Amino acid sequence: MKSTFIKIAAVATLACTFAVGSVSAADYPKKKPREQSWSFSGPLGKFDKGQLQRGLQVYTEVCSACHSLNLLSYRNLADLGYSDDQIKNYAAEYEVQDGPNDDGEMFERPARPADRFKGPYANDKEAAAANNGALPPDFSLLAKARAPERGFPTFIFDIFTMYAENGPDYIHSLLTGYQDPPEGTEVGDGLHYNPYFAAGEALAMGPPLSDELVDYTDGSPMTVEQYSKDVTAFMAWAADPQLEERKQRGFIVILFLLVFAGLLYFTKKKVWSDLSH
Amino acid sequence: MSGHSTYNPTSGFGKWMDARLPLARLMHDSFVSYPVPRNLNAFYTFGGILMIMLVSQIITGIVIAMHYVPDANVAFESVHLLRRDVSYGGTLQSWHAVGASLFFFAVYIHIFRGLYYGSYKAPREILWILGVVIFLLMMATAFMGYVLPWGQMSFWGAQVITGFFSAIPLVGETVREYLLGGYSVGNATLNRFFSLHYLLPFMIAGIVILHVWALHVTGQTNPTGVEVKSKQDVIPFTPYATVKDALALVVFMIIMAYFVFYMPDYLGHADNYIPANSNVTPAHIVPEWYFLPFYAILRAVDFNIGIPFTEIVLIDSKLGGVLAMFGSIAILFLVPWLDTSSVRSSNYRPTYKVFFWLFVVNSIFLGYLGSRPAAGIWIPLMKGSTFLYFAHFLLVMPLLGFFEKPLPRPASITDAVLGKDGKETAAAPVAAE
Amino acid sequence: MSDHNSGDATRRDFLYIATGAAGVAAVGGIVWPLVSQMGPNEREKAAGAPIEVNIGDIEEGRVITVTWRGNKYFIRHLTADEVEAAGAKEQSDFRDFVAAADRITGPEGGDAVWSVYGANCTHLGCIPTEVKENGDTWNCPCHGSRFDVTGRVTKGPAPVNLPQPPMVFASEETLIIGTDKAGA
Predict the structure, then answer these.
(1) Helix (H) or strand (E) run with residue B314 in it
(2) d(C-alpha B140, C-alpha B220), whole Å
(3) Considering the entire predicted model, what is its pTM?
(4) CB of B239 within 8 Å of any CB in chain A?
(5) CATH number assigned to the domain with residue range A27-72+116-241, chosen from the 4 options 3.40.1110.10, 3.20.20.140, 3.40.47.10, 1.10.760.10
(6) Complex prediction ipTM
(7) Which end of chain C has fewer CB atoms < 10 Å from its terminal CB, N or C?
(8) pLDDT tens digits for range B136-153
């Protein structure tokens, strides 16, 4: 019976893992995302606030020209370590529409911390029209939404290694992965070759980052690699601002449950000891 | 084993109440003095786990419904604002979503346990059938729940699944329109799915009560497959089964907590983090993992069935796939009558045991195939695997009963337990009949 | 039960109690999030930030209604007569007496002619309408509570005066409701 149990447990684990999240092995991306070490991975992962602040700077100065951040409000920037006044000033740089006022007219006013991040376009159609028909995706959940399939058997090991940084790895690889198309590959007009892109061999967005593009004030290297890591971490935070809290909570819950299970195990043994004779 | 009730109220109020509404007596007889076979193994704890999972899903569901808005324009956003802005919202939402996955994980173990130990055989046919009904309702509930976050997979899942109904000859399209509340998946669809997603769990709970009732009439099976014969064969539910079930539940919760807190997205699909968009179909639509075997069966039928040598089509490929898929579940209803063997537990059926494990492996493989694209090598594999699935029920189960030579079974549960130094090696029977 | 010596029994009792306590803790840990999620969420809290009201346009004797955290507040610009009449009333006229001066305020260096208070009756929450009878200014249509011009209850079932929100004058023209700290 013991061996049957183990067999079934193994099979059941497989049953669970085999089937999970496995989309078909498509032709793209041509290269698997490069796995990075992130401060927020692992059971006690935490965001690096300095990195998030730099990421916000890259987003503000570069990405936000095309990409919105709809699900976040300026007040959320408190997570990055900013004070209320700093957030107020950041928000006040943007004009948002409010109203109607008592005269029935809509009016513009400086954004407040409670307002959502103002996007670069009024709506998706305008965004697409301004970008040759390719809609720049919203950043709020992108680090979760872009997670290419890991493939069998990697996705089984992922359970045990607690690998959940598929999305950030993909984004960082994409941002740093632009290169000249190999010989014999023709990319369409206005498209840019990138072997890490998940939905084809080339994408509409050109390489968005270049060295020295954004002025860092904390002495971090001003390279594409660093910009990309910072903005990716920022996107990971934007997609999952509760990550730190969630992991700490999990640590406590699991620790407690392990103790509880231990107690129950001995209680069960004790209760059942009456039976064996 | 509905024996004599041993409930004995001591307090004045207890007696007064017992004479009017013997609720305490019912609880006592069902969960305290209720006799269970003494040799139940860990797989028999999943019934209790499932009961708690149902309660857990209902409670977390009611709670997150306080924040969810079933409107196509804001549904997606409301889920994410729940996760971001509500106190413990992220945990509760994950607990509900991961909970659905683990609910199915537990129910599959429960079903396979029933198949292995012959829990469907007389006199437990109704118990088994109620279980299959619960399984069907669970599938409907889970599907509609998955639509509610209104991401890309939600939307296109709804599109595909409601498409099943358009396969019904003549009235199919009309049936689909009535399901959708429109000509396409839209706001009306979302609203009614929310309503039904809220309703169905309570229907499940109702049938679970019948399921438990039926169980308590016939009593549990046990790994030997031998019915309870004497008082020595059984132990009272409390404290023995209670504490064992509690231990199993906490271990199960550890697994669940691991996913909820550390890998909340692992069991879901990344595309559902993109808001529903009726213009763009995701590159690969796949259902949640627990539906994948059935999805593979659906796609295995890519041919019309007609009268040979003519061009008359009786069942086109679309209807054929849908019939095969529903048939793969409906066939479970017939299992009590398809299995012709007089031996209950597979421990004493050496040949069937092999087929059983083949069936398990094949089911898992079907799940893997369900995640593959319907192209190339995968199509013949889907067909072969689907054939094996049905062959298990339609060929192995009926025929093996006539050919198989079962091993000798123990005379009683007590013999099986005490004859082997307390070690659980039920595979080694003690006494022949 | 077989024979246990007392040491065994104690250990067993301890085990059972510890397990039971862990079970209780588990239930508590489950119930807490379920209760906690009922409270106002972060969006509500952020949307409940203090509001700025331009009071420069409110003429003497007029009242406006503003909304803070979804609740209505009256901002009343009192006439000199009203200020005087309110101050002249006696303690016996009121159920929940406070001096009129505590209910009338004004910007630093400006006249104390403003009375600001919640617009929901302290009985069961209806919004009073204006009347001019017996020195009362507000009548609650639901159950007949009466309030004077500064929102103090004079009769009816309402137990206490209409509450004053936290507020501060940012300037002669601007009143901030929702905080009593200037500059916040």
Answers:
(1) strand B313-315
(2) 28
(3) 0.90
(4) yes
(5) 1.10.760.10
(6) 0.91
(7) N
(8) 999 999 999 999 999 999
